[in-house]
Amino acid sequence: MVIFRYMDIDREKSEWVVATFNILHPYTAFNSTQEMIYFTADLHLNHHNIIRYCNRPFSNTQDMNNALMDNWNNIVAPKDLIFILGDFCFGGLSRYSRLFNGHKVFIKGNHDDCNMLNSLLCKIDGLNIFMIHRPFAQELPPLIDIILCGHIHNKWQTSKRETKPLINVGVDVWDYKPVSLNQVLNLTHPIEETCATLRVL
Fold first, then answer.
1. What is the span of the domain harbouring residue 137?
2. What is the average per-residue pLDDT within 43-53?
3. What is the mean pLDDT of the chain?
4. Element (H, E) at 201
5. 158-161 sheet: strands from edge to edge
6. d(CA 5, CA 14)
7. Is 199 part of a structural domain of the chain?
8. Higher confidence at residue 114 or residue 162?
9. Ordered DSSP codes for 61-83
10. Is the dihedral of CA 190, 81, 153, 65 positive or negative?
11. CA distances from 21 to 18, 105, 140, 179 (A)
12. In a domain, 198, yes or no
């Protein structure tokens, strides 16, 4: 079972409340033993300069868009749940979103101008997983087990923040593919032993 919560960081005193966003209603009874859960970030569809910035192996945005869509749809089934941790596309969110499989939950990135969640806390199979675009953008909620982020592209895949495993789910470090919940969980154990040096971005 997946339980959604979000932090209202605009209030003078932040508090955790059960999410009531319409986009989340279909997933409140999502059964993670039957459907798969995936995470991704930083696709930057339609963003030509990202090819050069991150040394992506594509000749133009059309090739990049098609490869990212094919990789996604070959992994994510229509009934699966996928969390997008920011910077999905440059313009045309509704137009591009319908081309990609899965029930989607969007978290706002620094290039997004839509009305999205700033962060999200989910309880998935007993684990409190905190999702945010920028890895160091806001204070951490209490009692979390894993932090997922995007934003830093190909700088690192795993790190730590306040002793918590910090995992970059951006496509640049995942072969331009979504990341499954099992892949995330498999990464959390090595992080306890070795991690990248933290830098505030």
1. 2-191
2. 93
3. 79
4. none
5. 16-18, 2-7, 119-124, 127-132, 146-149, 164-168, 158-161
6. 13
7. no
8. 162
9. HHHHHHHHHHHHHHH--TT-EEE
10. positive
11. 9, 10, 21, 24
12. no
**For residue 184, what are its two tokens?**
């995330």
Answer whether residue 197 is part of any domain.
Answer: no
Count up the domains in the chain and report the number.
Answer: 1
List pLDDT tens digits, range 94-146: 888 899 999 998 898 777 666 678 888 888 878 889 999 888 767 777 788 99
Say how far apart CA 146 and CA 83 lie, in whole Å: 15
CATH number of the domain encompassing residue 83: 3.60.21.10
* Residue 40 resides in a domain: yes
Distance of alpha carbon 83 from alpha carbon 180, whole angstroms:
10
What count of residues does the chain have?
201
Rg (the chain; Cα; Å): 16
